[in-house]
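Question (not urgent): is this output format expected?
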Amino acid sequence: MQLSRHLTYSLVLMVCCACLQPQPAQEDISANVNPQGLTINIKMIADGFTGPVVMESPTDGSGRLFICEQTGKIKIIKNGKVLSKPFLDVSSKLDGINKMYSEKGLLGMAFHPQYKTNGRFFIYYSAPSAQKSSDHKSILAEYKVSADADIADAASARVIMEIEQPESNHNGGQLAFGPDGFLYIGLGDGGGGGDEHGSIGNGQDLTTWLGKILRIDVNGKS
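Got this back:
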């Protein structure tokens, strides 16, 4: 489908960008790099995904890549091959996705910095809302891995946040842990064009989470 084709290209682009990511500023480069003779190649590492939007790798030394499909499955690339059974499937929890074009779905994933010992990870997805004023709601949920390192424990799901979304687009969903141990969540402005919600737009309105970057202490007791 069109969604799959466009986002497959995005996955290839992410791989290329990851390979080209510059060194951190605090690491000194002792010699000048001569660009003469350098070549850049694109290498196919895996295919067959439906709308891949996120690629993550846990800090557990396994070298596995976890691919989030917008349609709700998380698949693993292990030893160069895509495992036949998904790591997690939340497709039944998702709000309806237009196969020709949609910004909803499974949109974010992040592994806890101590994933190797605690098995915790977090996802962000679009779910149906019971509120008439909302198009859907965004869910931030925590899961844990099962006894099988390649399969998540679906029964371990714990919803951390529910964010009502007024429109179908601009949902955000990027998840990342900072060096401070907090989980950061990037939220879209709630949809439409030009952020025209209210008098100043959601991005400038401090009474709403929309259009913000949130920080959560996932290690807290509450």
